[in-house]
# Entry
Amino acid sequence: MKFKAFLTDNGVNLLEKRFLPALDKMGRICHLYLTRDHAIFLHNLLNGDGVQSIAQFRKESLFEDYRISSQNEDRIAFTIDLGLLHRALRSSVSICGEGGGTTGDRLQIKLVKKLPPHSRQPMPFLTFESKGYKSAVIQDVPISKPLSKADIIELQTALDTAQDLPQTLVQVHDLLQLQSFVDRLKHVGDLLNVSITQYGDLHLQVSTTLITIGAEFRKLRVLGVQVEVPDGDRVMSAQSRTESAIQREEAMSVKVSMKHFAKSLHCHFAKPDCAFYGIAAQGSCLTVIFQFFVPGTRQTDKSISLHCRLPVLDTESS
Amino acid sequence: MSSSAIEPEIADIVCQLDNVQGMVDALSSVRWKRHQEAVLELSEHGIVLIVEESRCLQAKVYLKSELFVSYEYGAEGRPRFGVSLGLFVDCLNTFSVPGHASTIEIRYPGPDMQLLLKSVDSPDACIYAELRTKIPDTVSWDYNFEPAGSTPINFTVKSAALKEAIDDLEWPGASIQIVMEPDPPCVTFRGEGHGDLQIDFMYYANTDLLIAFQCDRRISYRYKYKFLRATTSNIPSSVIKDNRGSKLTIGRGGMLKVQHLVSVAKSSIQNSHIDSTGHQYQPSRIAYIEFFVKPEVDDENPVNDS
# Structure
């Protein structure tokens, strides 16, 4: 089992400034899954009922001289502490920076087994090796034992299932506005009702015995199955509008944990260019897909993808 | 078509407010603990919110109709209803977007006697809330405030200084004596408990702190620290920033009235003017906050207006 690669400047920038801070908020510990073509950060795919998040990078978007080999179709997966990874990356970058950016100051990352101090058992590490102008620094980030063949197959299966797209997706432009709203809503209740119509309405609502607060975002861009906005629904209240859309089977509604929803919004640290919300078939989960543009264009960068799946607490769909 | 098409009945009140944060500030200033029930009283002149504790402390927030962009009153008499103050404030907070002036509509009653709120800025992004109301308890006990004598006894002090003084008195705690003396004009806060602490506001020494003073005889009353503290514990930062003053009046029997002014002016500089001291000022856009604190009645000599 071998893995060795050099992080590109773009890769460092993506991870250090954007993805690691965002992913760290999703949960300290995640799986890092390396294949021949991709590096994937996965949260809660194998275990737990938390928010699943999947951040997938084509190897070229992070690395050069990417070499991987294992007896398991060149796939390696392990768990890693994102806080430690972020710290190691940050300090390696600062050392690399000392050289003034001349060629040859490359940041190498590789999988090693080492004997930690005061121990007789060799342990696996993800090692960062950076050479500065006057110094070279090696940083070892401890990782779990690599996953067994059976576990990797399970992980791959979970990953394949998680790629299913909802029928209808609506685009939210202003994630910050949504976040500031959800931040204030957090005090009110623990359950968030999310409804999405096929004509581009996203309706969020918290309801307790004493209070109901909601927000309705209308006329959003729709991807996938779409219907015309029904006539005369302007005069209705947000609630009755959503209810009648559910009755006509033009909308779905699910309940998710407010905490999960707030957590998924932390993905904005990764600076996505847009976000889409959708409810999976049979209301099995709420899916949030973040898109990234190729810098300087409005074209989707297909080499990077990030999406979250929020477990549904109590189905109430059409 | 307007949204009123589905509201066949005339509401008791429908009003619009363009400074949600100002209203949040005003209502927060009477929040001294987590769970508080408030009574809202509606009239053609505006909305009054009343909070009470232990029959010793009462606070009122006056939201005059001029504070609202529009104010339509359609009720007979003066409808009153109870809400949870904490929920009401949290709920209003949801509408206040930092760096963005939002206008909301407040309506009462809803189909189930709820208090209804909704944002009205944008047809494509609407926030709404329904707050369950309660039938208030029997008419809340009235804090009859009457002047102590022919000359009113009061002083006005910078709100920041008042808050600081009361915060400092936490250390001796328990009960605080307020003494006013005409000659030389001076207000003293004295705490005796775990230790002694005395804070003097000398009128001639601190004219910038003690802005006004009116007192014709020595007067002294004791108040429970926790009630005194409630009067300043949540003064909004805008009051301190605007360098406003608070007026304290002692009425008959030692009833203490504390008044604060909270700006509910729209944050934009348009249609406001800058007064001589450099403060932005929209004269009618002020919420009045009043606290009434009953004095402690100890031993046989409770009242000592000497």
